[in-house]
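Table S2 (continued). Query chain:
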Amino acid sequence: MRKINNYGIFAAEANDNIYVIGDIHGDYQVFVHCLVDLCGCCTVTKVYDDVENNYMNREYLSWVDGCNSIIVFCGDIIHRKRFSDITLDDECSDVYLLETLFRLIKEARKNGGDIIYILGNHEIMNILDPDEESYTSELNLQKNKIFFEDKKKINQLIENSYAWIRINDTLIAHGGLCSNYLDILKDIKVSDNDIVRYVNENFRRYFLNFDNKKINKKDISFNLFIEFDIVDKKKHNLFWCREWGYNNIDCVQFKKILEKIKCKKMIIAHCPQFLSSSKPKMINFECLNESNNDYNLARVDLGMSRAFEYNGDNKKFMEYIKNNFNRKIAVLKIKVVDDSISFNYDSIITNKLSCLQYLLIKFGLTKAEWDSKNIKTDWIGFKYLDKIKFDKLIPDTDPSCMAENAILCLLYPCLKKDKKNLKSIDSFNKFTGIKVREKLREEPIEEIKAKIRDKTSITINRDDDLFNANIIN
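Corresponding output:
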């Protein structure tokens, strides 16, 4: 893929491998699975004790030699906290993730590839307030404060990122282009074809050497990137816009808005799709082009991070366990057809594993197994796993079995032996000297799966369209 300029304009060709990744939210294991297993652009080159961040058995990633893939991160790399009262398996990874990205960007470019980093509202929140604690988990507070108070670090972040980008005819942004956002530029002469560049130029100018104690509210960039209009939600900036984030948008209006910046399509993150009020979803699309069998809008925020697991011992815990069926770690692989970016349900790359499911395969089905690998966890789900006896499942009619049934459904993909053949897991086992068990349970796999299908009574809202996705085994 060719960079047209340094301000977010790119030209892709048919042979380019381009992957788009949604919100990571401080979960290093999601990051590993995406880059190693789904995109195939990175490999684990060592596993070590990251004493500085108190993260034992941390996988060190390196870019694969000769890989020319393009990875687009859509923002919200940081912020592991979602609930005010509890964070599942809190980890000090926010700054580590950013520094790893900066290193991998250099490695990728040496090999003819690239990582393109678009900032999200959570990075902006920490730039504006280094003491941010609403979403910064406890273990990240000190590191984030040091990082976001350091102008050199902020400059490194801004120099390695964009406010949004355009690839061919497609805009990619964290929140997207809201209907009235461009009203900010109504008194400024900027051609439609140069708006993406203009916004990125001002993004760099405004945030380089940024001083959060001396914010210039008269600068056009304050309106472009910081000001939050409570009344007019259609004027929200490209980090906060949610106008196109969920179901049943006006595709005619959507098309008109994109025409203002000479684009036909848009890819957004920011809105976790499992929270959709009408139907929980995975990566999904709207505004179908019937002639090409592709779409004009893609949504890639899946709530993949364990930040979205509620680890309290009450009904809320089970509600979020059920959400795992719509929070499978997945990336979007876009392609070029007749100079236009194209994506549909065949573009989804996934192993159909949520982060919890991936880690249960990786580290084991008991807390003792996690402890033996020196992996810290406080997940309360283990107490349900310990109770499950596959040969003596509680009858469906017994309401007390609901918790066990939810956990059983979570386990379903973990019982497929082929899921153990993931490169990231193979590498972890190799570097830690862990011998992989031949069976996760003594019972025959097919028999267990049949019992799960027959005996579970919970209703799962699942995005059926996901089953059209490309599955990596």
